[in-house]
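Ligand: S-adenosylmethionine. Inputs:
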Amino acid sequence: MTTEGIDNPAAYWGELWTSGRRYTRLSAPETALLSQYAGPGRERLALDIGCGDGALTRHLAGLGYQATGLDCTPAAPALTERSTGPVRYHCADIEAQQPPPLPQRAHALITTRLVYAFIKDKPAFLSRIRGLLAPGGLFWVVTPMARSLPPNHASIGITGEDEELLTSPWAMVRATDVGILRCYALRDGGGDDAGKETRGH
Ligand SMILES: C[S@@+](CC[C@H](N)C(=O)[O-])C[C@H]1O[C@@H](n2cnc3c(N)ncnc32)[C@H](O)[C@@H]1O
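Predicted complex:
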């Protein structure tokens, strides 16, 4: 798979989902790590960007969040499910010129798993995240690193430069490798770990 030439993410991803393509499943070590940083939802809002099959969105609801899964293609399996109870789905391109109609500075948790490498304008995306995240909220990013992948798959991972851009603005940065996936817990002032910066991985 290559990320080059994804001019129309809805069509690109729609074709992959429709052809039966599936992605690395959510693992127990990943969800345990996420629970450690995110804590119980207590009905606060969470947003899962690029929710795909909805496994992570449903997991967030299981932690007690009011979870919205957002995906750019209606062919994503989660978007074919009905929104019920604490799980809602929404079809929108997070990079669209118009931001999705979601509450601003309101989400205690924003997750994005296996998506960040595909974001075309990362600075604009990160500024959109900041607009959606509540003060002290957690931004959880799961992605492979390009250097851990075979050269013909490197574009589905992020570079060291991408990592610097992603992590440098946050007060708290934790990075943990789970297999070939790197999990980032990012938070600004106001959270439990605010001010205690670590960059271990
Ligand atoms: C590799 S899949 C990962 C799906 C899921 N997060 C997972 O961990 O299994 C990437 C997902 O992100 C969605 N996506 C990619 N670019 C997007 C964008 N700009 N806005 C919203 N969703 C996007 C795709 O439609 C696809 O469902």
